[in-house]
Amino acid sequence: MATAEQIVALLKSYSDKDDVRFLSVAMQIAAHESRQGHKTMAKELMDLIDRVKENRSSIPVNNDPIPIIRPKGELTGLLTANFSKDRIGDLAVSLELKNRLAQILIEQRQRDKIQAYGLLPRHKVLLIGPPGTGKTLTARILAGELHIPLFTIRLDTVITKFMGETAAKLRLIFDAIAQTRGVYLFDEFDAIGSHRDSNNDVGEVRRILNSFLQFMEEDCSNSVIVAATNHPNLLDSALFRRFDDVLEYTLPDTEEITTLLTSHLARFNTKDVEWSTISHRAVGLSHAEVVQSAKDAAKNAILQDHESIKSSMVINAIDNRTRKRNNMKN
């Protein structure tokens, strides 16, 4: 049964006509029923929630944490929470990578069927690759596609110089993972596996790593754990074995660059744009840099009252991004 707090929040959101909070509370009740073993009830609730969302597509979803899932007590400061509208179609990566993400979503959506045979769906994913290639977006997509909250772990507050405190905070986080279904993102994950802060001795570093390995080994939750790093070479080899999937992200090729640019400039007339020339010009930029180049070109067109995008506008935006990247390296 729903908790008293959830019932109060549900009625209050209904009274306030707060559709976003009402649906969020309903999702928490469904997750609670699932944890209690009431799988049929949980599935019925989630089906109803999905139906409401489809019928009321105008319901706004902001990025502010909803009170019913906002981290409380000792978790305050360790996690941030929000809801995502991102979908897998928003990700410009290779077909192989998209297929692997789709498999995770399939297993998560049919986790009851898999669990009935004593198996667990994929729910521990390590993302590796350069900055700006779509790792954080992937976590948002998993949360958006599964209609569950995205919790981001703030490693700057988790990792401390005091012996045993980091492991204790990790325990709190994994308890939350077990209690509240969501996508839990450990960004800059190499801090867990290879933290070398001068205030920490080697023994404490090893204790943190061993604690994380143990928590990962014991985890059988309905949540999705996502770890992302730009420096996979810094990770302890034992970490890789704790994940169901290790997905490698690379800089976009010319085809992916064209897809990113056309999708973000779709509101403009682009019939005269030479995409082949432009995409080769952008090789070496990350997904995020290509997207920002498209946005820069779009803003310039708007400010000049142009309804069309010219190749020169996009090339100028790309060249500016390339110069900025080169300046940061020097």
Describe this protein with a few key phrases.
330 residues; alpha/beta; Rossmann fold; Helicase, Ruva Protein, domain 3; 3 domains; 6-stranded mixed sheet; 15 helices; 6 strands
Please give a structural write-up.
54% of the residues lie in helices and 8% in strands. With 330 residues, the chain is of the alpha/beta class. It has three domains: 52 residues, no CATH class; 179 residues, P-loop containing nucleotide triphosphate hydrolases (Rossmann fold), CATH 3.40.50; 76 residues, Helicase, Ruva Protein, domain 3 (Orthogonal Bundle), CATH 1.10.8.60. Strands 1-3-4-5-2-6 form a six-stranded mixed sheet, with helices on one face. α12 packs parallel to α14. About 5% of the residues have low confidence.
The residue-averaged pLDDT reads: 83
What proportion strand? 5-15%
Oligomeric assembly: single chain
CATH class (first level) name of the largest domain: Alpha Beta
Brief sketch in words of this structure:
The chain is an alpha/beta fold. The protein is built from 15 helices and six strands.
